[in-house]
Amino acid sequence: MAGSSSSTSGLASMITHPVSEKLAKNNHATWKAQVVATMRGARLEGYLTGKAVMPAAKLEEKVGDKTNKVPNPAYEDWVAADQQVLSFLLASVSKEVLIQISSKQTAAEAWRAIETMFSSQTRARAVNTRLALSTARKGSSTVAEYVGKMKSLGDEMAAAGRPLEDDELVEYILTCLDEEYDSVVSSALGRAEPISVSELYSQMLAFETRMNLRNNGHSSGSSANAANRRGRGGPGRFGRGGGRGGRSPNPSAHHGGRGNYGNSGSNYSNNNYNPRQANQGPRNNTSTSELLCQVCFKRGHTADRCWHRYDENFVPDPRHIAAAATTSYTVDTNWYTDTGATDHITGELDKLAFREKYNGGDQVHTANGAGSGNEEHTP
C-alpha cells in the first residue's frame, strides 16, 4: 500500500510537467525518449511495458465455513496508477494520434498501439534519411553549410530511432566530399585514431580558408598583371618591348611605358615619332643601334624586318659587310710569336722583368718593322 501511495504521489507531480513536444508523425523517437525517462523517474515504466501486472479485482476471504469475495485494495491502487499514466499519454500526443488510441483502456494498450503505429513509419524514415546521407554532395556550399546539413541528417536518424555513431557520420561526410578535398580525406583516413566530427570540421574549415586565400591571391595577381600589360601611366604608345605605355598629359610628347628603345621612362617628341619604329618595337630592351640585319648587314633592324628578306636577287653592299665584320669582331693588332720555343723575343725591353742579350748573327723584325741582330731575349 505504501508503495502504491508513493507511485500515485509521484504521478501527480509528474503530470504537472508534461513533455515539451506532443507526439506527431515526425518526432516519435524524441517523444518516446522523454516519456520513457519520465516514467522511469516515477518508477512507473512497468505500466507502459506491461510488466506491472494488473492484480485480481477480488480476493477470497473465509468466514467460518463460508468463502466470501472482497475487493482487492491492490487492484484499486493499480488502476489508479495505470489510469494516471494513460492520462499522461493521452495528454502528450497530438490530435491525430489521440484519435487512434482514445479507445484504449490501459496505458500498456495505448503504448503498444503507438509503437505499432509508428514502427513502420520509423523504418521508412530511417531508410530515406540514410539514402540522403549517402547521396549528399558539398557542391558550392560552404563547409559550415555542408557539415551542418550532414549533422541534421544524423539527427534525423536519431529521431527515427537509428542513431549514428560518430565514426559513421564521419564516413558519410568524407564520402560525399568533392575531389578538391581529397587531401583532407587522405589525412583523416590515415590517422591511427578515428577522427571525430568536430575535428574533421575544424580541418575542413582550415582547408577552405586556405583555398579562399589562395584563390583571392590568384585573382589579385591576375588583375595586377593585366594592369601591367596595359602599361604604367595609362593607355598610350611605346610600352615595354614595343607595346603600349602611358600617354603624357603634354600632347607634344609621348612617354614610354618602361624602357622603350633601351631608355627607361624616355620622352620622345612628335618630331621624332616614327610609326614604323613604334610598330616594330625593339625586343628585350635592346638599343636599335645594336641591332644588325643578317640580310643587308645594315644596323637598326633585324632580318625579320628587312625589306630585302624576300628579294632573291639582292646583293648587300660590300661596305656594309666590311663594317659589320669590323665592328662585330675585335681584332688584336699586336703580334705574338708562338713557335714552341723556350725563349721569347721582344723589342720593348721595359716589359721584361728578366732579360739577356742575344749575341747571335740572326736578325728578327718585329711587328713595328724594327729589326736587329742583337735583340735581348728572355730565357
UniProtKB/TrEMBL annotation:
Disordered as annotated region, ranges: 215-286
Bias kind Gly residues: ranges: 233-246
Protein name: Uncharacterized protein
Source species taxonomy: Eukaryota, Viridiplantae, Streptophyta, Embryophyta, Tracheophyta
Feature: compositional bias, Low complexity: 215-228, 261-274
Domain of life: Eukaryota
Bias (Polar residues) ranges: 275-286
